[in-house]
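Hi P.,

Sorry for the delay on this. The queue was packed all week, but I finally got your sequence through. Input first:
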Amino acid sequence: MRVHIVVFDGMDDLDVVGPFAVLGMAGRAGLGVSVRLTAPGDPPHATTRGGLPLHPEPWAPRDADVLLVPGGGYGQGDGAGVRAEIAEGRVPAALADAVRPDLVLASVCTGALLLAAAGVVTGRPCTTHHRAVGDLVEAGGVHVDARVVDDGDLVTAGGVTSGLDLALWLVERFRGPDAAERVQSALEYERREPLWLRAGEVAAR
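Then the structure:
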């Protein structure tokens, strides 16, 4: 499983670092997972909301099995974050161009609004931070009240810390429950519920 996390200025620190830590641990454990940071246009760096500088690798979505989009800065409206990226249009356009049958698009928190701007959530079950649910629905998404929502090639998670649950679910989906349990145990983290699957069921763990 090759996961590319899409970075941009003003993203939430934990939206990026949480999934990166989970997936990186899975890779180091020999579970067949790789993770990298990337950004359309190949900028030399991107800075999180908290001031953490990140250095993305070149944009190569065809090399990914999963493109994971963080959120952040959505409520502030101060020129950096999801709202600014939607207005600028570069990230949504690149995500829309990246769509292909064997690619999973995933998001944490208000990253779902970037996927909405890319036109990929219309009529689809999805979730986001609770404060952005109205905007997600207005953009065409069908909100599901769950921690992680898996609708096949679209996997979305709620706010901030749900990125940990999203990443662990991706490990389980691609590499099996034993692999996910191994990473979860090493992290000393307990996944929170619920998980909504494409069949419409809420899975209990």
